[in-house]
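mind reviewing both lines:
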Amino acid sequence: MDEAAFPWALTVRIPFPSARLASVAIRTLSVDPELSPLVRRSFSLQGETVLRTDYRATTNRMLRVAVNGFFDSLGTVLHVMEDLDVDVVHHKGLETLDGAQGVQQGRTGTAA
């Protein structure tokens, strides 16, 4: 990839509780191609459980728009895993989500 043509870069790493869930996430998210020719995106697994997404873009605005779309899609994948996947157990995370922008607290994945 020509770094001079795509000078804006971001790497996002998302840990999953199991290798299977990380694999499901990468297969699900990689189905849709990046919409803009001004953005390049690649997915990989670091170790067995960390989804790594590398972005490069021609402008900071294009990078922001692409990453926002990625997080929307990732949120959908995570909610489906939480609600429907039999292997997902509500483990206490390594970090708190206090103060994280856009995070919805209180989802339990259980029927009322």
Remarks:
- Confidence is low (pLDDT under 50) at residues 108-112.
- The chain has one domain: 3-85.
